[in-house]
## 1
Amino acid sequence: MTIGQLHIFNALYLILLVVVVIITRARMRRIVGALVGTFGAAAAGIAVIAVCERVGWWHFNMHWEPYYLFQLGISVALGSFVFLLTWRLARRFGGRGLAIALLIAAMLGPFRDSAYMAMFPEWGYYAPGIAPMLAISVAYVVIGVVGHGLMRVISGPATADPLARRLWKHA
């Protein structure tokens, strides 16, 4: 991924994060929980990437310059909107809703990631066969469980947290 592409993703993720914070009426504790969950999920994702690269299932081209890594860290932080959404899923549909969301992510993830690699071959490649696609599915589940689990540790269970008051309502 190039620096220009990271800037585009950062702008998009910033807009998504602001919109999701407003729509989900997230309080500061939930936002902090989402950030912690996102960085935990990123650490789990890095571990999965390292194992799968070692096995030969895929390769990602990474730039290890400080500015690139800083921008990548910003992208990770801004991606915390995902766990604000899973929190709302858990609030509305409970554990079953989260399980269905993880199942959908596991099913669609390989198609999404393969499409990205086809559009941007400079990002890396996946080895042929079913094993890399299954590894992508497992990665989505691991990242989702770790991220939402850490968010729950910080924010508490979704059903126990009252929703924040709407911005347009007076005290």
## 2
Amino acid sequence: MGANWFIAFPMQVRNLHLRPAPPPRVRVFGSSDLHLTLGFLGAVQESDARNAWDRIGDFASFREVKGSFSGVEPLGHPRKPSAIAAIVDTGRDALSEMIAEARDPLLRAAGAPEDRRPPLPHMTLARIQRRARAIERREALRWAQAIDLRDVVFTASALALYTWAADRQERLFQIIERHDFDS
């Protein structure tokens, strides 16, 4: 299976403490893996991902966003969610605007499938493993409901082209290219 590619805002997050420890079959993202996806390119060739990345300068709306989160929601299939995500509260409009402007042209530039969903600015905190049994999935969702994000704040001050990390036991993703916004 080939690596997936995506363009995302690397997240600088303060005051995030996921306690208690997650239950079995939940993989918590490390701080270097926290991001907010602008566009998921999928298993395209590296040259196609770079074609999309080369278009980043075409969008005037990209800017730094500081914000907070409203809470945690399970995402994915309604009966079998795969992601546990922090939903953006403060900063949602600015991030939604940037995603709405750039996602479709970037996906087209990479030859990736269109994404018809409305923008949903969120930061995945953890993934429930595919092998999780129903009881483990319920435990993961109970754990997610207990996550307190009241004091958590973020800054999104760049965009990056990501792919899978070479050693996915150490970290999940690696940044291939990065574009910092002018302050």
